[in-house]
Write a structure and sequence with these properties.
The structure is a single chain. By secondary structure, this protein is of the alpha+beta class. Helices cover 41% and strands 9% of the residues. The strands form 3 sheets. It has a 6-stranded mixed beta sheet with strand order 1-5-6-4-2-3, with helices on one face. Strands 7-8 form a two-stranded antiparallel sheet. A two-stranded antiparallel ribbon has the order 9-10. The two termini are 15 Å apart.
Length: 358
């Protein structure tokens, strides 16, 4: 098959907490809950608009062969000191000792864990495949209820302490946001509709894989939750999303009930959240979970390899829909593993969530 043409490079602004969650929280009667959520929403909207209007500078070409690339990450962490000027004040560079700030050290470790999985499991040097330095900023703004990747770096808020805790506490959140950079440098999936949901799902998949890899967990041992530990004790819920059972991550009197669908039967048609990118991502998320657990063992080895093959294989169009992605995973399974268990497991996983893969 010939490579599919890709759309032009797109500026992105991707957050871990979906707008619909913050919108619900902004309507709370308690001003201590509604205020930070409202400010986060307003700030995210402004940053998203600025990002879309920004002119991107073409990256300077780096080494062209893996022989010239280091097998170590190049990380730099900054402290915004509760301001919004990025990147902030440098507080830790590669090779330097841990600081007294736990947020800095957690972000530093999370960036490194993502780099390690990409290199060890898939032979990729950083998110661009060319050793791109990884930059993160912590303590962004006051009671900022989000973390985001802005196309160039990672940014973490401290949360409001009432609903959300420090956004560096969950390694899969760090890896999720950084994977938006991996997608940006590969398939460059458009951030709208089903292609946007695939974009979000890719980040959940590799976010979960980084967590599993760092903990040494098999697919059966993993919790398949995104953002476990991020919700404050008062919240009735266990995470932001569940890949195993979309729609069950939380059911709270303030946040409401997790609205993610688990199959195409409940696909959500909406113009909000860029066409429901954080909602409908539950469908491909569950397909990956079903595949990984059916195959067993380490999810990053066979299931993750197939998703990585499709993301980086230059056949996935920027405006791909679920059926396009499903079909390519079937092709990838056949090309890598032949007519074996992997091929049948991929087909079955997509069938169970109602996505045709033929």
């Amino acid at each position: 098959m010939q490579p599919r043409p890709q759309h032009g490079f797109q500026p992105v602004f991707c957050t871990i907490v979906p707008p619909h969650v913050l919108d619900k929280l902004s309507q709370a009667d308690d001003p201590d809950l509604a205020g930070p959520a409202r400010r986060t929403l307003e700030g995210d909207t402004a940053r998203r608009t600025r990002r879309q209007m920004a002119t991107l500078v073409t990256p300077t070409p780096g080494p062209t062969t893996t022989d010239q690339l280091s097998d170590k990450p190049e990380r730099t962490l900054y402290d915004c000191r509760h301001g919004t000027q990025l990147p902030g004040f440098k507080v830790r560079g590669e090779g330097e000792e841990p600081t007294r700030d736990a947020s800095v050290n957690r972000a530093f470790a999370g960036l490194g864990a993502t780099f390690e999985l990409l290199l060890t499991a898939y032979g990729r040097h950083s998110i661009d495949g060319n050793g791109l330095p990884l930059i993160g900023s912590v303590h962004y703004d006051e009671k900022y209820n989000n973390a985001f990747f802005d196309g160039e770096q990672m940014v973490f808020g401290d949360g409001d302490g009432e609903i959300f805790l420090d956004f560096t506490v969950a390694i899969d959140v760090i890896a999720h946001e950084l994977t938006h950079g991996l997608t940006q440098h590969t398939a460059n999936l458009s951030y709208f509709g089903q292609s946007g949901a695939l974009n979000e799902s890719m980040s959940d998949v590799f976010g979960s894989l980084v967590k599993q890899y760092s903990l040494g967990q098999t697919a059966d041992q993993a919790d398949w939750l995104i953002g476990a530990g991020l919700l404050a004790p008062r919240v009735q819920g266990e995470a932001l999303r569940s890949m195993k059972a979309p729609g069950t991550a939380y059911d709270d009197d303030v946040l409401g009930k997790d609205p993610q669908p688990a199959s195409m039967e409940d696909y959500i048609h909406t113009t909000e959240d860029n066409g429901g990118v954080h909602l409908n991502s539950g469908i491909p998320n569950r397909a990956f979970y079903l595949l990984a657990t059916a195959l067993g063992g380490n999810a990053w080895e066979r299931a993750g390899q197939l998703w990585f093959d499709v993301l980086t294989g230059r056949r996935l169009a920027a405006d791909a829909e679920f059926t396009d992605f499903a079909r390519l995973t079937v092709e990838a399974a056949r090309e890598r593993f032949g007519e074996g268990d992997e091929l049948e497991a991929v087909r079955k996983a997509w069938s169970e969530v109602g996505v045709p893969s033929a």
